[in-house]
Amino acid sequence: MERRKALDIKIKNFGKNIWCYSPSILTYSIDQHRPADNFRFCPISVTGRRCQLQCDHCRAQILESMFPAETPERLETLIKDFVRRKTEGILISGGSDLDGAVPLLEFIPALKKIKEQYNLFLVVHTGLITQDLASGLTEVGVDAVMLDIIGDDETIKKVYHLQKTVKDFERSLELLDRYNIPSVPHVVVGLNYGKISGELNAVDMISKHRPEALVIVALMPLENTPMQDTVPPKPSSIANVITYSRIKLPKTPIILGCARPRGAHRISTDILAIKSGVNGIAFISQEGADYAEKKGFKLKFSDHCCSLIFKDIKSQEKT
Q1: What is the pLDDT of residues 68-97, one digit of tens each?
Q2: What is the CATH number of the domain that holds 72?
Q3: Domain of 167?
Q4: What values do phi and psi take at 18, rounded to 5?
Q5: What is the pTM of this model?
């Protein structure tokens, strides 16, 4: 019943479009869509392969797929190359420091220059936000800020190795609101070694603020990490978080993000996500796309980061 209610809310408020995203971080194609090239939307790490936190679920492996740019000068050089390749947007990310933040402050002048000179879509993964960083991001005029929101103190300490609490994550949301920065928080289902612990609390926290969109992702056990043998959350558990989110945030775009288990698990998750009222799916499976079309949904494709869905929806409304 709840899942049906969530889907009805989605259709009432957003119609029957499903936005499908495929940025340049994975090789991907389905019958309905093949990305134009590998440089349309590019991820950059300002710390290269380095991460001080070494969280149990990642151990900096996610950084390996990003272009390294460890100085503002290197970042500007890299962007010039991307622009020659017709890049339309970039994700600025990196490893976290011991306070749970990506060290971005020294890059603020370069990011402002890049935004003004090239007008690329600029999405920033920040980690925890400070007032200085919020002020800097406002000056840059970023298109979206992404950050994980964790609703469980044990997970923060055990998985992220942070001496922080849930209140510190809520403070980041408060700062983003105060500085009117477009925020796209992420909730990682099963982050606590596959267990559901705090995800719904994270959604509750987010619902008290002004997110432009919400991304739901799920634990992907990676080799050579403490979680390599962890059983990921079931597709139904992921869908339950989506259902809860849709009911809690009826007018906020909700996306199933790129980080989630693959294979049969992904197929089931994609289909259940559609049934639960998502607005979009990153790297949708062939079976998920076919199911959506069979049920009368219209697939809309973009090779940009899924965090920009709120811009895509607003643009669609104007046409």
Answers
A1: 999 999 999 999 999 999 999 999 999 999
A2: 3.20.20.70
A3: 2-318
A4: -120, 115
A5: 0.96
